[in-house]
Design brief:
The structure holds 2 protein chains of 2 kinds. Chain A is mostly beta strands. The mean pLDDT of chain A is 94. Chain B is mainly β. In chain B, strands 2, 5, 6, 10, 11 and 12 form a 6-stranded mixed β-sheet that branches. Helix content of chain B is 0%, strand content 53%. Classes of the chains: A mainly beta, B mainly beta. At the A-B interface, strand 4, strand 5 and strand 9 of A face strand 11 of B.
Chain lengths: 112, 115
């Protein structure tokens, strides 16, 4: 099994729908991140969490919310999806011991 | 805020030749780390190489090496003896100081390898 698992892998949804992207990890890392990838813009940080009780906004948090249900689980929600939220979304983990970052395989979300 | 800029949207290289990808960054910090990540069509993010700012020696990993120019805030990646499997998106990334901090990415460079 992958160290960082994202579900779903691909998703098409309609404008205005609520959608949740899920991320779970078996790395034992305390820090988790949600990034969004768009062509030419690279990966931009949406939200990050340094532990279960610590949630922080990234540079592009508008229109998104997150929940850290446990150390191993970090979900991203789009309350009312819009077409410009069409992108590739990555979950990542890291820890204070500098063992590196581990990325999930991404969720490609299309909002029509 | 820190920014990372990759000025080359796409680079093409002949198999077995060398290609250099550019990256510049802006920071007022003295303690930071720089990374190059590879993203093949599988979408996986793969760490290629990392450089600690306090180290003057340029990092090397097999056919991949960097040219780290701290004063110029430049961090280029050289891929030697290019192989078809090197074809991918490459992202430069910055991390401020302490382990576990968030990464800031550049816009990416697509590398095409011609047989």
């Amino acid at each position: 099994d992958a160290d960082v698992t994202q579900t779903p892998r691909n998703r098409i949804t309609k404008t205005g729908k609520r959608i949740m992207l899920e991320c779970s990890q078996t790395k034992g890392h305390d820090r988790m991140y949600w990034y969004r990838q768009d062509p030419g813009l690279g990966l931009r940080l949406i939200y990050y969490s340094f532990d279960v009780k610590d949630i922080n906004k990234g540079e592009i948090s508008d229109g998104y919310s997150v929940s850290r249900q446990a150390q191993a689980k970090f979900s991203l929600s789009l309350e009312s999806a819009i077409p410009n939220q069409t992108a590739l979304y990555f979950c990542a983990t890291s820890d204070y011991r500098d063992s590196g970052y581990t990325f999930g395989s991404g969720t490609r979300l299309t909002v029509v | 805020a820190q920014t990372v800029t990759q000025s080359q949207p796409e680079m093409s290289v002949q198999e077995a030749e060398t290609v250099t990808l550019s990256c510049t960054y802006d920071t007022s910090e003295s303690d930071y780390y720089l990374f190059w990540y590879k993203q093949p069509p599988s979408r996986q993010m793969i760490l290629v190489i990392r450089q600690e700012a306090y180290k003057q020696q340029n990092a090397t990993e097999n056919r991949f090496s960097v040219n780290f120019q701290k004063a110029a805030k430049s961090f280029s990646l050289k891929i030697s003896d290019s192989q078809l499997g090197d074809a991918a998106m490459y992202f430069c990334a910055y991390r401020r100081g302490a382990a576990g901090n968030k990464l800031t990415f550049g816009g990416g460079t697509r590398v095409l390898v011609k047989p």
